[in-house]
Write a structure and sequence with these properties.
seven-stranded parallel β-sheet, 8 helices, 7 strands, 14% strand, globular, binds NADPH dihydro-nicotinamide-adenine-dinucleotide phosphate
């Protein structure tokens, strides 16, 4: 009874940016819970390898791949339409693809500002809108936007990332305002500092690393696997009356100073 609440058998899930890092672990977690899962990224070699490795690790899992640029409106429309035709009706979308760009505000080029905003915020609008166009007539769908502790907290040198992740919280609320009555649930997860390719240079920096260990009540970096349970919950019937929320998964970082 309890475990069936989290069962995703028969559901179809797309996780953007799941060729590596957090997205890859979220995709593996959704697949392990029974979902037919579409891995996604731009670089097709890495994407193919990720698909093969996930299929080998989970015999019997239904794993597919799709490659498109989440910042390109036409490519997004074609990509979502291709998945709906080739794999089936999307039940779950995780807007995870994202990038970082670290430079002080006074040195920030407008092109880099635009690139981070397009990849980390506009992409969720583009992919979410295309998915919703298919989900709304079916009156069911779960969208999970991957936010960040930077949804709430700023640090020097990452202004466009912080602006985008703050915007993503309010996009989550706007999608809820427009789509919840038609059966779509849109929520966010906000990871703290997670050890992936994106943060490898910070892990390798002794002073930053010790700052993280001291600043995080749980006294460790997060792992992509730490995010799987909350994502499965938000993708499943166990969260059917949760709308427009952002859940912080950060070892407690956002609740202490
Ligand atoms: P990684 O750099 O490890 O992976 C990023 C993924 O996004 C890759 O699969 C990449 O695919 C894909 N991607 C990037 N740009 C595009 C694009 N334009 N079109 C399609 N795919 C794209 O990142 P993480 O796993 O660390 O981060 C994943 C998400 O989690 C991001 O939104 C990030 O902001 C968020 N996050 C990360 C934290 C951390 O500490 N790591 C903390 C809080 C939030 P490809 O290489 O093929 O382009």
């Amino acid at each position: 009874m309890t475990s069936s609440l989290f069962d995703l058998t028969g559901r179809i899930a797309l996780v953007t940016g799941s060729s590596r890092g957090i997205g890859r672990s979220l995709a593996a977690g959704l697949a392990a819970s029974g979902a037919t899962t579409v891995l996604h990224g731009r670089e097709t070699g890495r994407l193919r390898t990720a698909g093969e490795e996930l299929a080998a690790a989970q015999p019997g899992a239904q794993i597919h791949t799709a490659s498109f640029d989440v910042t390109d409106a036409e490519a997004v429309a074609a990509g979502i339409s291709d998945i709906e035709g080739r794999v089936g009706p999307l039940d779950i979308l995780v807007n995870n693809a994202g990038i970082q760009h670290r430079v002080p505000l006074l040195d920030l080029e407008v092109e880099d500002w635009d690139r981070v905003l397009r990849t980390n915020l506009t992409s969720a609008f583009l992919v979410g809108r295309e998915a919703a166009r298919h989900m709304l007539p079916r009156r069911t769908g779960k969208i999970i936007n991957v936010c960040s502790v930077q949804t709430d907290l700023a640090r020097p040198t990452i202004a466009p990332y912080t602006a985008a992740k703050g915007g993503l919280r309010n996009l989550t609320r706007s999608m809820t305002a427009e789509w919840a009555s038609a059966g779509l649930q849109v929520n966010g997860i906000a990871p703290g500092y997670i050890h992936t390719d994106m943060t490898q240079n910070l892990v390798d920096d002794p002073s930053f690393n010790s700052w993280i260990l001291g600043r995080t009540p749980a006294a460790r970096w997060g792992t992509p696997e730490d995010l799987v349970g909350p994502a499965v919950w938000l993708a499943s019937d166990a969260s059917n009356y949760v709308n427009g929320q952002v859940i912080f998964i950060d070892g407690g970082m956002s609740v202490v100073v």
